């Protein structure tokens, strides 16, 4: 039974993804977005549970990827599809199909890539999903302005490419053995930036729209820090 605990947590992630798809298809985008958040929460803890219990297995790794395809790939793709379908440029809805395709390709690639132990190569699928979670909670923001609709469609293509591209992304994990600024400068800079974004979001009443800004900040900081490392 102990060996199945992480797998049960992973299946909870998958179930949340299925519920998200159902609600998104029915037009309940806020509920769909919340189920993605809950699924990502379970996704964070299944690997941790496997390590703590000492029961990591190839089966768990494959099951985790299958669950992520649904929760962080198909579900946000359906949200994006529904958002664009109800916009002033409804034919852009087909762009939403790129999200699950890029996500599935990335997860398959991730399973074969042994380099991603302490950092990421390409944008992680849960991070990409959170972008559409944020936009899904405020459909009017996306659908009422043509330039915003087109920008979001372009953003979905750009982030999809980033998921499968060889772009190094820094790890969000802080080195708890050495909490100095020098050792964790990138992580601390990211957290400070998120704090500023959150304050602005509260003042401007952006609700969950701060989530896409978090991820965009993460992408920009990764690109900046990687450029500096290459220059050195």
Précis, in short:
With 232 residues, the chain is mainly α. It is built from nine helices and two strands.
Architecture overview:
This protein is an all-alpha fold and 232 residues long. The chain has one domain: Four Helix Bundle (Hemerythrin (Met), subunit A) (Up-down Bundle). Helix content is 72%, strand content 2%. The protein has 9 helices and 2 strands. The protein has helices at residues 5-25, 29-53, 58-85, 98-112, 125-136, 139-143, 146-164, 185-203, 210-231, and strands at 120-121, 168-169. Strands 1-2 form a two-stranded antiparallel ribbon. The longest helix has 28 residues, at 58-85. The model has no long low-confidence stretch (mean pLDDT 86).
Main features:
232 residues; Four Helix Bundle (Hemerythrin (Met), subunit A); two-stranded antiparallel sheet; 72% helix; 9 helices; mainly alpha; 2 strands
């Amino acid at each position: 039974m102990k060996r199945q605990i992480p797998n049960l947590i992973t299946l909870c992630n998958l179930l949340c993804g299925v519920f998200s798809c159902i609600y998104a298809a029915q037009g309940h985008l806020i509920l769909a977005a919340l189920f993605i958040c809950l699924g990502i929460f379970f996704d964070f803890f299944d690997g941790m549970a496997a390590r703590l219990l000492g029961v990591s297995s190839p089966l768990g790794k494959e099951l985790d990827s299958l669950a992520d395809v649904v929760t962080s790939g198909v579900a946000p793709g359906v949200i994006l599809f529904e958002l664009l379908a109800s916009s002033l440029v409804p034919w852009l809805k087909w762009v939403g199909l790129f999200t699950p395709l890029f996500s599935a390709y990335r997860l398959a690639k991730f399973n074969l890539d042994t380099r991603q132990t302490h950092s990421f190569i390409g944008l992680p699928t849960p991070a990409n999903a959170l972008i559409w979670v944020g936009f899904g909670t405020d459909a009017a923001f996306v659908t009422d302005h043509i330039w915003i609709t087109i920008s979001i469609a372009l953003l979905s293509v750009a982030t999809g490419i980033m998921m499968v591209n060889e772009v190094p992304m820094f790890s969000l994990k802080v080195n708890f053995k050495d909490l100095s600024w020098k050792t964790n400068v990138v992580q601390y800079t990211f957290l400070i930036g998120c704090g500023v974004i959150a304050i602005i979001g509260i003042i401007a009443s952006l609700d969950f729209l701060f989530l896409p800004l978090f991820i965009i900040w993460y992408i920009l900081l990764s690109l900046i820090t990687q450029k500096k490392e290459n220059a050195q």
